[in-house]
Amino acid sequence: xxxxxxxxxxxxxxxxxxxxxxxxxxxxxxxxxxxxxxxxxxxxxxxxxxxxxxxxxxxxxxxxxxxxxxxxxxxxxxxxxxxxxxxxxxxxxxxxxxxxxxxxxxxxxxxxxxxxxxxxxxxxxxxxxxxxxxxxxxxxxxxxxxxxxxxxxxxxxxxxxxxxxxxxxxxxxxxxxxxxxxxxxxxxxxxxxxxxxxxxxxxxxxxxxxxxxxxxxxxxxxxxxxxxxxxxxxxxxxxxxxxxxxxxxxxxxxxxxxxxxxxxxxxxxxxxxxxxxxxxxxxxxxxxxxxxxxxxxxxxxxxxxxxxxxxxxxxxxxxxxxxxxxxxxxxxxxxxxxxxxxxxxxxxxxxxxxxxxxxxxxxxxxxxxxxxxxxxxxxxxxxxxxxxxxxxxxxxxxxxxxxxxxxxxxxxxxxxxxxxxxxxxxxxxxxxxxxxxxxxxxxxxxxxxxxxxxxxxxxxxxxxxxxxxxxxxxxxxxxxxxxxxxxxxxxxxxxxxxxxxxxxxxxxxxxxxxxxxxxxxxxxxxxxxxxxxxxxxxxxxxxxxxxxxxxxxxxxxx
Length: 558
Fold this sequence. Notes:
disordered C terminus, Growth Hormone, Chain: A, 65% helix, four-stranded antiparallel beta sheet, mainly alpha, 4 strands, 558 residues
């Protein structure tokens, strides 16, 4: 759950915006690929017509390293001690050992943990404008370099003062804000409709892979001669390298990529519709009907509870393992990473399974996966609360299971969101994203309130609170869950090639099949008709750029 969606091809609503110049450039590039004579070999590597898989891989690496940068402090903070006390850190978990003097107090740690959420909110504000104007390629490169610079400068800022570290944490949060816009744009432009679900599953793995990368790396370097600073330098340099590769290889449209063959381009474009709109033309969101809908209320409650449970371990897992279960630093790194690796495997198994369980309706499957996910996660929290510290191995199993079960909710609550909201799914996912950021922002204060000294009893109270919260919101979801399109998500579904279709309010819609982008004359006709229509409307304004929406042919605008 936690901003982690496994979407399926039948429910994906890919959206890509371009100005008129980009439309023409894409059309010309597609036309040039179509000129290739029969039997003529491509002059460049085409990677067996699978260039898009390399795009997905490189993009996943880029998103992973940016996510890892936001988490590296969450781990290394347990290694940050005053100069000369590093030897005490190595013996910290030994009973009766002198505790080292850590650089930051609990209150300062809380502020530094919250800084990521602040940066995410700040970075989200301009990203839509930047990606629309400059493209995802340049936008992600800029955000990635900001994350790299902040990560490289953090060790220096630690020696200067806490406010400077806070600023670097905010900048790392700015980098994290690219996750969903970048993933959505890449899936819309580079994935075929048949593979869109798997593309989302692959790209969304960066949420777990970030922890898988940074936890063991930080744990190993913390106890090495490089110290905790080494983790920041290694990840900062790796970010620059990966972002540079992304900028070199990625293109905002598949048609413009020299390694995409004509065959692969047809596969990517098949079934998609290009709809030309003005940049500021949009469908108004029915806020009232959405927030009065009981199934949406259940979804929002469940998302909040699930996110709260997931983020408790996502942000504070290393602290709990080290301070309460007394894992040493290296073992903490590997113990914190394993659950996220297993969660990735569960995601790829549960996704197809949720569509093929015999004897269950779609609604029953959604409720089943949501219930198994959240009730089992709540049970794991309860087990951790009641379990004595001496049973550290069993506690580690509960910790691992809680994170794994939380991943199952991507085919429970999130799938219900996809099914009921149709073309307004982006709005509900945005609400979920803001809810998640608010939780990350508030969580440090809540943890400080429940567990100010990191004792077992204090963490037990927090775990019981999370358990009760998750159970309540899951029951609410189960009682209100739906899988059919809501009335406020309805709309016209009829589409014809190169035909101007009316909106419900009498306005006109201009469409062309994506496969026809290589027909430059057809593209120009659509653009010309749109310009003429704009000029004839009283609300038209000069200088408006044109936009393009990629939508699936036959897509049911539910």
